[in-house]
Amino acid sequence: MIDSTTVVAIRKTVINSIPESLKEDILNNVGLKWNQYTAKELLSNYLDNRYESLSKMKTLLYKNPVLISDFYIPIPVKLGEYNIKETSIVKVILENKKVIISGGAGLGKSVFCKSIFLNIATNNYGIYPIFIELRDLNISDQSLIEYICNNISYNSKKLKESVLERMINAGNLILILDGFDELNFNLRGKYTKEILFLSDKYKNLKILVSSRPDISFKSWNNFIEISMGGLNRKLAIKLISKLEYDEDIKKKFISKLRSDFYDLHESFVINPLLLTMMFLTFEEYAEIPNRIHLFYEHAFRTLYHRHDALKSLFKRDSKTKLDISEFSKIFSYFCLHTHVKQESVLNERNIIDIIEKSIHHYGINIKPEDFLSDLMHNLCLIQRDGLDFVFTHRSFQEYFCALYLLNYNNSDYRYAIFNQVAMANENKIINILYDMNPYLVENYWIKEKIRELLSVNINEYEDKKNKIERIINIVFIKESSSEPGKYYLMYNCKSTEDGYNNSGFNKKIWDFYYEEISFSKREVHYLINSMLILTSNEINDIFDGCYILDDKIEFLGTLKELCNKLSDIAYKNLINYLYEELIVNSRSILEKISSFIDEKNTNSNRDISELLSQR
Q1: pTM to 2 decimal places
Q2: Coil, strand or helix: which one is 11?
Q3: Is 210 helix (H, G, I), strand (E, B) or coil?
């Protein structure tokens, strides 16, 4: 099943349509009776329409939709330590049935999922594919099953939930759920439960979920996680070679990639999105900056002043006539607004309204429709998705959101807005801002957040219990397969500020300071681990000698469900243990980091004082 060779592709040439005979074979395998004509008509129509919509897409380079096969170079993917061959990837997914494909921003997770859909739709695997962009559920209160049925609709006819469930039960169906990380925090718990419910109820159902890495996947017991790597030199050259662009510029850039340029800028080159942006900036800038925010700044300037991809002397006309500084200001507020409000999909009325607010924020006199036109047609940062509008890629939304925070000067609201941005989603915004100005992040977010956390001092058991229940969503206890007698107490934090403070914040400050502060192993454990390793004696102390689920210490569920399986004494011991681990033991680490920031500020002030005293 797994081959330890380098993966280069899952690519299949996109054809104009799915052959009728192949489509009939796919439909014959979904468990429908021959007399269910309406369902077969709906499924046939959905397959055709989805195939057509997913086979093309816009990119930062192309303002018009192009075939995925014209530009896509899949990057290496791994299951554990094993590389997966090009010819094996669909087989691996179908055989394992429940799969998560995870990777950072810009690695091509969505295109990977689209390629899987196109592959299954044009090859006789006997599987019917359904592709769902999970971000669309942010503006829906439907269950996942309801949403799928509404998507498989045609001429006012809708697939019945009972029919879909029969298809799922038959096992010859794959749900491709793209962009779990694009679900709003307050919805992830709901749809996690639905995905895991379907996974547990229908053992033969195939599910592929794409996402940025997420610690909550540890508790998705039935799922394997495939991770995306990066482009090697050969694949980077192949990607640039496929682009529709001036051939002389491509040759010069490829020559650079064959030199030590690749090694100097490897962190950018391995990422398909950043490599494409780097290529766009190549004409204008001789050097590529190593700082990520400078790289985005250069890329935006290139997009703003860019020439037509095929006619390097033709410059597109701007409707707003704004200079780059004014345009950047308006767009930065637009990005902040959409990020904080968690609006990833906008209809025409909403996007014009937000642009109008952004223009008014800076008192600039232009038409919102003109600004939207420039965003779409000149810079290709916003694109249509059916009747809605979406960011071409979220990385630009994150960069411009950080840019707004960098220039925000109202100290009364600075912590609140920094914290709101950090809480709106798990993303790179604070990291980008830290790259721009560490002082701002340290003194207006980290120190303030630490002060807030240190102010919590709870003594009563009921208060401790309420605090822990606000933090933890799922608890999972299991004996180690490699070390018998050791047990894992794993927890997933809720998508609330309490949950973030005890997972996301600790992880982020570790990212900022791991090279500068000497943490002990135990401190590191408190900072970044959501998995507490216990000995059998500790387990017995916590659980008061009782076992969970027959004779095994194994449990997956919420704390309240766990409470029903434990004696009052055992549950109280567990709450006290968790409170000590999550709250009390983190205080010394937070104090250590706060002191480190204070020392940095003292040294900085001393430098300025000495400078001013020298006359």
Answers
A1: 0.72
A2: coil
A3: strand
